[in-house]
Amino acid sequence: METKYQGEKIEVSLPKSRNFLCVIMPAYYEGIKIKDNLLYASSVISGFVKNYCIIAVNDGSTDLTLQGIKEASAEDKHISYVSYDQNHGKGYAICAGVHFADASYIGYLDSDMELDPIMFRSFLRTIQDEDADIAIGSKLHKQSKLNYPLCRRIMSFGYYVMLKTMFRLKLKDTQTGIKLFKASVLKPICKELTTPGFAFDIEILARASMQGCKIIEMPVRLNYNRDKMTKSKVSLKQVFNVFKDTMRIRRNLKHMK
User: Fold this and answer.
1) How far is it, in rounded angstroms, from Cα 155 to Cα 151?
2) Which of 2, 107, 165, 188 has a CA between 20 and 30 Å from the CA of residue 58?
C-alpha cells in the first residue's frame, strides 16, 4: 500500500502485529542479491526469537533492489518493506523503518551481510542481563574478529580519535553497522534526528548519552566481502560529508546542553 513519511509518498508492506524484535535493514543498490540476504537474516533470527520482523528499506534504488525485497517478503511473512523513489541516505532510511516498527527492541543491520545477524542474540542477552538501553557492535573491541582492509581500519581509528575529542563519548566505535536498542529509547531520538547520511550513528548515540542511556559495546565478526572489482559504497565525498556532518552535530548538540 502507499502512505506518506515526512511528506513523501512511500510504498509499504508492514507487520500486522507487534513484535518482540524488529530489525531494520536499509538497502541501496544491493540488486537482486538482497533477496537471499533478507531470507538468510530471517532464518538466523528465527533461531533465537520467534516473535520478530525484518523491515527492509529501499532507499531510492533504481536497480533490482526493490524487486529482490518484494520477492523475499512474498516468501517469508517475517519480512516487510518500506520503499521510496528518492535516495536520502542511510540515516533517513533507518529512521523511516523505525517509524513503522512496532516492537520492544529495534535493531538495525547493514544489508550486505558483512555482519552476521546471529550477533543480535548476544546483543539481546547483554541488554537484558545488564539492564542496558543500547548494545552496539564495535570493530575496536578487543574480542572482535575482522577481515577488513587496513585503510578502513585506519579510517575507523581516526574517526574514533576525533569523536573522543569532540563528544567525550566513552565509546570506541560508533559506525559499525549492527546496533540494538530498546524501542522506547530509539523512537523518540529518531523523531529528532537531523542527520540523514552516514554520520547519523554518532547523533543517535550522542543524544542517547546525553539522556543518560547505558550503552554497551559488543565484539563483532566482520567479513569484508567486496573484492577488488567491487566498488566500495564509501567514497571520498561521503567521507568528507561524514566529517562535515559530525562537526554540525557537535554544534547542534552543544546548543542543547
Assistant:
1) 6
2) 188
Give the torsion through C-alpha atoms of 136, 69, 37, 33, to 10 deg. Answer: -130
pTM of full prediction above 0.85:
yes
Distance CA 146, CA 154 (A): 13
CA distances to 53, 166, 178, 251 from 256, rounded to whole Å, are 35, 15, 27, 9
Q: Which of 79, 82, 37 is nearest to 59 (CA)?
A: 82
Q: For residue 36, what are the contacts with CB-CB under 8 A and spacing of at least 6?
A: none
- Name the amino acid, one letter, at 121: R
Q: What is the pLDDT of residues 32-45, one digit of tens each?
A: 999 999 999 999 99
Give pLDDT tens digits for 46-103. Answer: 999 999 999 999 999 999 999 999 999 999 999 999 999 999 999 999 999 999 999 9
